[in-house]
Amino acid sequence: MAALPGLADSLTPLEDTSDGPKSQEVVIPANHEWRVESPPDTKLVIKVKSGIAEIFGIELALEQNYTFQGMNFALFAVEMVELQYSCLDFPKTTISDDTNMKYIYNLHFSFEKMRISSFDGPKVLIVGDSCSGKTSLAKILCSYALKIKSYQPVLVNLNPQEGVYSAPGCISATPISDIIDVTTPTWGQSMTSGATKLHCKQPIVKSFGLENISDNKHLYKTLVQDLGQVLLERLQNDPVVRRSGFIIDTPPVSQLLDDLELFKLIVKTFKVNAIVVCATTDDLAIKIDEILKTQTITIVRLPQSSGVVAVDDVHKRFLQRNAIKEYFYGDHNVTLSPYVAGVDFDMVTVWQPPSILENHESDPTDLLPVEVNSSNLQHALIAITYAPRRASKDEVLHSPILGFGLIMEVNDVRKKLRILLPVPGNLPDKAMILTAYRYLE
Amino acid sequence: GATSKNIQSRNWYLHDSQWVTFKDEEIVSTTRSEDAAST
Ligand SMILES: Nc1ncnc2c1ncn2[C@@H]1O[C@H](COP(=O)(O)OP(=O)(O)OP(=O)(O)O)[C@@H](O)[C@H]1O
Ligand SMILES: [Mg+2]
């Protein structure tokens, strides 16, 4: 099967480049972090020669290559670390002892106490401004919980702009029962058809489709409630997951707090019992305390790390494209073979959530039919639901998601389209939901 | 490593009703089995 032009490019291993990168060495003193800030196209390979090094709370193996592409991260030296790295470009690297890791460790320890003293683990909500380290903290807290083998913390991603174990445009919950892949921004892979080198994860996904929560708050709230309900049911069936608890990552707090109902709804739906505020001052924590003052929820502020990078939109786009690519084609650990299916126009039914910003009149929960043609669908990422193709739009709205498809080619004359599917076989005879995400070179 | 030549692709996500009763122990990974073999 022919790959989309350029789609598989970045899967080429670094070693293949002709004028080979020079290897450099660095020593990181204990309790310091080595920070890397790298532009999207930069590939970096690191190898720990000695010492205990952690990235996002995951300890790295000695003498093993880890390849990163366009990722910012900090490598924390628990003990002095000797590191080798090679890179064709010049990523910005710095060493700093100004880290918030000890606060994060204390946080983890207090959650650990909850796990030990109750059948119900912590239900943690992380909030903070854009680029305040929320997602990094969520990763670290999950990694730390994983260190105690019998835990399976659930990572809940409520930020539709990020793809965590899935494509962007959705919200999701994923129990994490084995190592997080620190080298990929998607945290690793969702389930595949065979055994893979790195442990796969089984997420549950609700497709939002739009980019910003504000595009359709009502729909977002509906999906948050649907997701929360499924997750709490899972907890009832699974004592290990229940005891491990969950960590909720969120979009920038400005998007949550301009509608207090939404914020309160998240707290209530997930029965949140601890809130961690990523911020440089106490203001936000005080504000949240006032909003929730009648409730007994622990609110703590985590001092923001000075290492956090203000990622720009270009980089965010790169991460979103990367997440889509990984969903279909895998990453440098696992190469996946997606499948292209050809279908007639009259075999597909596509719905679209209305964007309230664009269309104030429309009913927010009323899915709109999408006419099948190239201008609407070319290169679009679509969510394939479990709802039969002719199901009512209300059924489609609340339907579980089978997965995603990518429309590769639309022929308006022959009334046929080609769609990239993650799983071999025919296009499932199901209703589909258009997302705002496009993938093309 | 000894990666199999089988063509591998992603699975569809589970239905909500399957997911609520899914147990992560059912997931196979080669690191897992290696771990198990070495202990
Ligand atoms: N200590 C650190 N050293 C270097 N880079 C870091 C550090 N902490 C976080 N980063 C990087 O900074 C960027 C922003 O962090 P992160 O994604 O955790 O913030 P966020 O609050 O989730 O952002 P958003 O609001 O976009 O979701 C990421 O690229 C992350 O990898
Ligand atoms: Mg984030």
TrEMBL record, chain A:
<feature type="binding site">
    <location>
        <position position="33"/>
    </location>
    <ligand>
        <name>ATP</name>
    </ligand>
</feature>
<dbReference type="InterPro" id="IPR028606">
    <property type="entry name" value="Clp1"/>
</dbReference>
<comment type="similarity">
    <text>Belongs to the Clp1 family. Clp1 subfamily.</text>
</comment>
<comment type="subunit">
    <text>Component of a pre-mRNA cleavage factor complex. Interacts directly with PCF11.</text>
</comment>
<dbReference type="Pfam" id="PF16573">
    <property type="entry name" value="CLP1_N"/>
</dbReference>
<keyword id="KW-0507">mRNA processing</keyword>
<keyword id="KW-0547">Nucleotide-binding</keyword>
<feature type="region of interest" description="Disordered">
    <location>
        <begin position="1"/>
        <end position="23"/>
    </location>
</feature>
<dbReference type="InterPro" id="IPR032324">
    <property type="entry name" value="Clp1_N"/>
</dbReference>
<protein>
    <recommendedName>
        <fullName>Polynucleotide 5'-hydroxyl-kinase GRC3</fullName>
    </recommendedName>
</protein>
<dbReference type="InterPro" id="IPR045116">
    <property type="entry name" value="Clp1/Grc3"/>
</dbReference>
<dbReference type="GO" id="GO:0051731">
    <property type="term" value="F:polynucleotide 5'-hydroxyl-kinase activity"/>
</dbReference>
<dbReference type="InterPro" id="IPR038238">
    <property type="entry name" value="Clp1_C_sf"/>
</dbReference>
<dbReference type="InterPro" id="IPR038239">
    <property type="entry name" value="Clp1_N_sf"/>
</dbReference>
<feature type="binding site">
    <location>
        <begin position="131"/>
        <end position="136"/>
    </location>
    <ligand>
        <name>ATP</name>
    </ligand>
</feature>
<dbReference type="InterPro" id="IPR027417">
    <property type="entry name" value="P-loop_NTPase"/>
</dbReference>
<feature type="domain" description="Clp1 P-loop">
    <location>
        <begin position="128"/>
        <end position="330"/>
    </location>
</feature>
<comment type="function">
    <text>Required for endonucleolytic cleavage during polyadenylation-dependent pre-mRNA 3'-end formation.</text>
</comment>
<feature type="domain" description="Clp1 C-terminal">
    <location>
        <begin position="336"/>
        <end position="441"/>
    </location>
</feature>
<keyword id="KW-0067">ATP-binding</keyword>
<keyword id="KW-0539">Nucleus</keyword>
<feature type="domain" description="Clp1 N-terminal">
    <location>
        <begin position="28"/>
        <end position="117"/>
    </location>
</feature>
<dbReference type="GO" id="GO:0006388">
    <property type="term" value="P:tRNA splicing, via endonucleolytic cleavage and ligation"/>
</dbReference>
<dbReference type="Pfam" id="PF06807">
    <property type="entry name" value="Clp1"/>
</dbReference>
<dbReference type="InterPro" id="IPR032319">
    <property type="entry name" value="CLP1_P"/>
</dbReference>
<dbReference type="InterPro" id="IPR010655">
    <property type="entry name" value="Clp1_C"/>
</dbReference>
<dbReference type="GO" id="GO:0005849">
    <property type="term" value="C:mRNA cleavage factor complex"/>
</dbReference>
<dbReference type="Pfam" id="PF16575">
    <property type="entry name" value="CLP1_P"/>
</dbReference>
<dbReference type="GO" id="GO:0031124">
    <property type="term" value="P:mRNA 3'-end processing"/>
</dbReference>
<dbReference type="GO" id="GO:0005524">
    <property type="term" value="F:ATP binding"/>
</dbReference>
